[in-house]
From TrEMBL:
Residues 105-489 form the Cation/H+ exchanger transmembrane domain. It comes from the Bacteria. It is found in: Membrane. GO terms for cellular component: membrane. This is Transporter, CPA2 family. The keyword Ion transport applies. It comes from Porphyromonas uenonis 60-3. The chain crosses the membrane at residues 9-28, 93-115, 122-139, 159-176, 188-211, 223-246, 258-279, 291-312, 324-343, 349-366, 378-394, 406-428, 465-489. It is a multi-pass membrane protein. Keywords: Ion transport, Membrane, Transmembrane, Transmembrane helix, Transport.
Length: 802
């Protein structure tokens, strides 16, 4: 569009706006005139009839006054505006929206605080719901609670929360894959059932003692229903919370971690089957009616496992290689989900059971489950599930536990829950031949309850089996037993201290840790490591490490990330005939996790890949530049300045490199990949005479012994080395500056100190380099030229004779 066309477009736009404004003025003026003339039509009898609508006799014709009352007509525009705002705020949709804003804000903040305390976020979310209820907000500021949660609005919250629970239980079912239970099925079955039976029996005995106290019972609750619900509530294990704890302890792929997950998964399946049967019995009304419910439960399970599961298996194989499921298929899944939930609801087994079972029979294909779960999980967990926490919190009154007897009862329930769950699990694990330490760990893991327990308790409360007092006591027990999981594990660690030594690395004379983000980076780093080893690494233990920074992920997501991240690097390791270990960790800080593991394995060399900050993609660089611009702008507004030293929260590439170089217990190499893979003519950049040792690394990784290597000074003041250089090494007469042609080189080596000096002033020049290695050599961990581990025996570090 040229200048003349732009001017014509603006003139046209201006003319249309003038016409639009004139039309609005005419409508307003006409409305005022017509409203004034219609005032005479508003008669007193009509107003009286309007006001006495409820008193009109049957069959009478009543006129509705649709005109503005005189009091409103006399109101100022501001008063009219305020009245309109209040009316919309008090409407159902307005009330629901402000409730959502407050609930989501409080739940996320309290959940984040508990995560910072290294506690499961679900505990903070449950507690946030209690804080918004009568236990805190209602006690401290009752007017605010009545305004925010009026009685007439609670029905909407309850319905939405139940829908969120249906989606949540569907995702929980998808996390439990049948094939994951096969490897340790026998042990997992024995341990899980013992962990259910022991607390179940103790719960029934405890209920027998409670039943003589009517103030603790719900009106009309039978002993059978109460005993069964108390027993099953003490037997539940929260699989999602347990999986999160195991991920945080980096045990997902250990024998203990897999056994704990299998045990919890099998226990949850059996517990929910028992809960469905208990609900059928509790609501049956008679033995014959309960028998019908059980019969339909068996029929439902036969359809789910006999028909739907095989069909879903075929479907999973059909879409195995498709990246995205079609909308039609997702629509079918949602239809089946609602149908399954509806059937179990009308059969007195609760809609949540139907959602859980449909998720359980989803195709075993991991990619299929990940895609379906991603489409459902964010809506369920982030938007709808917090409503369940608050709706439960509104019915939890901690003030009801106001006597020593009730506090003693809370202590008894907590003790019975812990002893029953941990004791039953520990005894069963020991009988299966598991060592004492691992058996104690399993007991502590199975004692985790969390959200799953709260779901069961709400079902009991909604059915009228649990009284409000007993519900509150059991919610308190749930919070305590879940919070105590992490301290219990730390106590076991302290009581049974054991030196952690990776068995497969015990005989290695060197340790190399390769940390990568993208799978392609892992492949590149492995290839470079193989060259650094001279083609073989018989005495070097190599560990591949990938860190996921999203700590709020499920087991199925973690399994997907693990498989996709390590698939290509492990295939490359197989091609290169390298024996490597895999280390997958979920942590908030990548540097902290990597440095911690480097210390743990006493690494001699740490290899890392570059981040998006030095990406050759212009979109990536533009994104980083815009992010830095916002950081500078908001930093000035808040009065905060960037510190020169490293900060863990910073995503700056330079600061991350400084973190690794300054805090790593070993030598560090940062591989900046710009796409060139062969190393035929490398460039060694020198700032000081000591940087000549990089030449030895360059000679090691070049493709052939005849490949030329060029030494280039970064300063005119640096003289040519006096020592005799090999025939293939040449000294460049030019210094590293903008006018230097770098196209002849396919790789570069630079010391960390030299790179750090160039970064602020010559960032664009660094971006013109081919792929390069930033190397910070710690001679206490490796030696050059043979790059071996310094010992009195001069053992080869990277496979070369010293």
């Amino acid at each position: 569009m040229n200048t003349q066309q732009r001017q014509q477009a603006w003139w046209l736009y201006g003319g249309l706006m003038l016409i639009f404004v004139a039309l609005l003025w005419w409508v307003a003026a006409t409305d005022g005139a017509m409203s004034g003339s219609s005032e005479s039509l508003v008669t007193a009898p009509v107003a009286t009839a309007t006001e006495s609508w409820g008193e009109a006799s049957e069959g009478a014709v009543v006129a509705l006054d649709l005109t503005t009352p005189s009091s409103a007509m006399e109101a100022t525009p501001w008063q009219s505006f305020v009245g309109s705002v209040r009316a919309h705020a008090a409407s159902d949709i307005g009330m629901l929206l402000i409730q959502l804003v407050v609930i989501l804000l409080v739940v996320r903040v309290v959940g984040w605080l508990f995560a910072r305390l290294h506690q499961p976020t679900v505990i903070g979310e449950i507690l946030a719901g209690i804080l918004l209820g009568p236990s805190l907000l209602g006690a401290v500021w009752p007017e605010a609670m009545e305004t925010l949660f009026p009685v007439h609005s609670l029905g909407n919250l309850e319905l939405l929360s139940q829908f969120g629970l249906i989606l949540f239980m569907f995702t929980i079912g998808m996390e439990l894959r049948m094939k994951d239970l096969k490897g340790q099925a026998q042990q997992a079955f024995v341990i899980s059932q013992s962990g259910i039976i022991f607390p179940f029996i103790l719960g029934i005995l405890l209920t027998y003692g409670l039943y003589s106290r009517p103030e603790l019972l719900s009106e009309g609750s039978s002993f059978l229903s109460l005993a069964l619900f108390v027993g099953i509530s003490l037997s539940i294990t929260a699989f999602p919370v347990l999986a999160r704890i195991i991920q945080e302890r980096s045990l997902s792929h250990s024998h203990l971690g897999r056994l704990a997950l299998s045990t919890a998964a099998m226990g949850d399946i059996v517990a929910w089957l028992m809960l469905a049967a208990i609900m059928a019995v509790s609501q049956g009304g008679s033995f014959t009616s309960a028998l019908y419910n059980m019969l339909f439960l068996a029929l439902y399970l036969a359809v789910i496992f006999g028909i739907l599961r095989p069909l879903f298996g075929l479907l999973g194989r059909r879409v195995r290689h498709r990246e995205v499921l079609s909308k039609s298929l997702m629509g079918l899944i949602f239809i089946l989900l609602m149908a399954s939930a509806y059937f179990t609801e009308i059969m007195s087994m609760h809609a949540l059971f139907g959602a859980f079972m449909l998720g359980l029979v989803m195709p075993e294909n991991l990619d299929f489950r990940v895609i379906v779960k991603e489409k459902v999980e964010d809506l369920a967990l982030l938007l709808l599930l917090p409503l369940f926490f608050v709706s439960s919190g509104l019915r939890t009154e901690l003030g009801l536990v106001n006597t020593p007897e009730l506090w003693a009862l809370f202590g008894i329930f907590t003790l019975v829950a812990v002893v029953g769950k941990m004791g039953g699990t520990y005894l069963a694990a020991r009988s299966c031949g598991i060592q004492r330490r691992e058996s104690l760990y399993l007991g502590a893991y199975m004692n985790t309850r969390g959200l799953m327990e709260l779901v069961v308790l709400r079902i009991g409360l909604d059915l009228g089996v649990l009284s409000t007092v007993l519900f509150t006591i059991l919610v308190m027990m749930t919070l305590v037993t879940t919070i105590m999981t992490a301290p219990t594990l730390q106590l076991i660690d302290w009581l049974l201290k054991k030196k952690k030594t990776p068995q497969s690395l015990e005989h290695a004379t060197g340790q190399v840790l390769i940390s990568f983000g993208r799978a392609e980076t892992g492949v590149t780093l492995l290839e470079f490591f193989h060259r650094l080893c001279g083609g073989t690494a018989p005495q070097v233990a190599c560990t591949l490490m990938h860190v996921t920074t999203d700590t709020d992920i499920s087991t199925i997501d973690a399994e997907h990330y693990y498989a996709s991240s390590f698939a290509a690097p492990m295939e490359m390791a197989k091609q290169l005939d390298l024996s490597v270990q895999r280390k997958y960790e979920i942590a908030e800080s990548v540097p902290e996790a990597v440095l911690s593991h480097a210390n743990h394995i006493q690494s001699n060399l740490l290899l890392l890949g570059a981040s998006v900050n030095l990406s050759q993609d212009k979109k990536d660089r533009d994104l980083v530049a815009y992010s830095n611009k916002l950081t500078r702008r908001w930093g000035l507004l808040t009065g905060r300045r960037r510190k020169a030293k490293k900060e863990q929260s910073s995503h700056s590439f330079e600061e991350l490199i400084a973190t690794f170089a300054q805090e790593a217990p070993c030598s560090v190499g940062i591989y900046v990949d710009n796409g060139q893979t062969p190393i035929a003519h490398p460039l060694v950049l020198m700032q000081r005479p000591e940087d000549q040792k990089l030449l030895l690394v360059a000679e090691q990784v070049t493709q052939s012994a005849d490949s030329p290597i060029t030494l280039m000074p970064l300063s005119l003041h640096l003289a040519k080395p006096t020592a005799e250089l090999s025939a293939r090494v040449s000294w460049s007469g030019e210094t590293f500056a903008e006018q230097v042609d770098l196209s002849a080189y396919d790789f570069a080596f630079i010391a960390y100190d030299a790179w750090a000096a160039l970064t602020p002033a010559q960032q664009e020049l660094l971006e013109q380099l081919p792929s390069y290695l930033i190397l910070d050599i710690d001679e206490a961990t490796i030696e050059l030229p043979t790059i071996h581990r310094p010992t009195t025996e001069a053992v080869s570090y990277l496979g070369k004779a010293s």
